[in-house]
Amino acid sequence: MAILSILFYCFIAIAIIQILYYIGFLSFFSFQKPEKGKAYDIAISVIICAKNEAENLKQNLPKILEQDYRNFEVVLINDSSWDDTLEVMEEFAEKHDNINLVNVKSIEPFWGNKKYALTLGIKAAKNEFLIFTDADCMPASKQWLKQISAHFSNEKSVILGYGAYKKVKYSLLNKLIRFETLMTAIQYFSYAKLGLPYMGVGRNLAYRKEQFFNNGGYMNHMSIKSGDDDLFINEVATKSNTALCYTKDSFTISEPKKTFKDWIIQKRRHVSTANHYKFSHKLLLGIFYFSQLLFWVLAAILLSFLFQWQIVLGIIAFRIILQFVVIGTSANKLEENDVIILAPFLEIFLIIFQLVIFSANLISKPKHWK
């Protein structure tokens, strides 16, 4: 019983940490209204790096070319594709004079490195203001460029947007993917609101070309296959130079993975970069994840022995209610309401999968971006 008493008090401490995170960190995004930018009609370069994305380009590129924005180019980067990607890009370039095509051929030192291809595309961009998305993404509206670019100013040189995933009915995997995406967005938006920006997603991200070259591009992490978005933002984003854009017209929508295997491979690449974040970011994110894990592990142990079960259930209920309020408010902003009813179950699934992914990355590292 002495061991159970110790575990019970540990559970209380972990629950307090979780409650503090929800109230002190995640709520900073949940209860904030979107900031309105000012339309400057600045010249924009949209950067899209594609590797074997012929079909996605056929479907999504027209949505970008149809943007209600007067002055923009689209920089299409073919990263050594072996499908018809280059041919598709050339067909679009023949019909649209605002397409800037960059064909990247692999060289041995940078083989399979998206950052090398992106660097060449950024150098080729004609404009100072860059907006990034992926070939498998489409804008949620024709106002996407207007919404994102309106947040650039003399002070703001980094813009963090939201990259949603398409909804698939009756799919547990789809809900898990979108719940993970929602939780990630709530965290990086909340931390940015607190003046601690630590990442962005390449599906919907913007920054000035000057910012890129002043930082030396991706040179500090060129050898790491992922991180063209989050590691770069982790280096350059500050409280004063970062703005958030999460109006519904500013979203991008991507095709989600259709199998658990493909999703885990994708997440392994993404997670592999977290170890290179600044120490303060790693500490805060690590405490949140491990307190989530310990909360449910300790709760399961205590309930299995019926030790102080009324108090344990009461704490679980309070935390779930708090989660529904904080995460639910954010989900409403980001149009992910349908995952909230399953949030406690999706959280447990996500904790397990993240543990599997962390363990797999300790054994071997992902090697290529595609």
From TrEMBL:
<protein>
    <submittedName>
        <fullName>Glycosyltransferase, catalytic subunit of cellulose synthase and poly-beta-1,6-N-acetylglucosamine synthase</fullName>
    </submittedName>
</protein>
<keyword id="KW-0812">Transmembrane</keyword>
<feature type="transmembrane region" description="Helical">
    <location>
        <begin position="283"/>
        <end position="303"/>
    </location>
</feature>
<keyword id="KW-0472">Membrane</keyword>
<feature type="transmembrane region" description="Helical">
    <location>
        <begin position="6"/>
        <end position="29"/>
    </location>
</feature>
<comment type="similarity">
    <text>Belongs to the glycosyltransferase 2 family.</text>
</comment>
<dbReference type="InterPro" id="IPR029044">
    <property type="entry name" value="Nucleotide-diphossugar_trans"/>
</dbReference>
<keyword id="KW-0328">Glycosyltransferase</keyword>
<dbReference type="GO" id="GO:0016757">
    <property type="term" value="F:glycosyltransferase activity"/>
</dbReference>
<feature type="transmembrane region" description="Helical">
    <location>
        <begin position="339"/>
        <end position="363"/>
    </location>
</feature>
<feature type="domain" description="Glycosyltransferase 2-like">
    <location>
        <begin position="45"/>
        <end position="179"/>
    </location>
</feature>
<dbReference type="InterPro" id="IPR001173">
    <property type="entry name" value="Glyco_trans_2-like"/>
</dbReference>
<feature type="transmembrane region" description="Helical">
    <location>
        <begin position="309"/>
        <end position="327"/>
    </location>
</feature>
<dbReference type="Pfam" id="PF00535">
    <property type="entry name" value="Glycos_transf_2"/>
</dbReference>
<keyword id="KW-1133">Transmembrane helix</keyword>
<keyword id="KW-0808">Transferase</keyword>
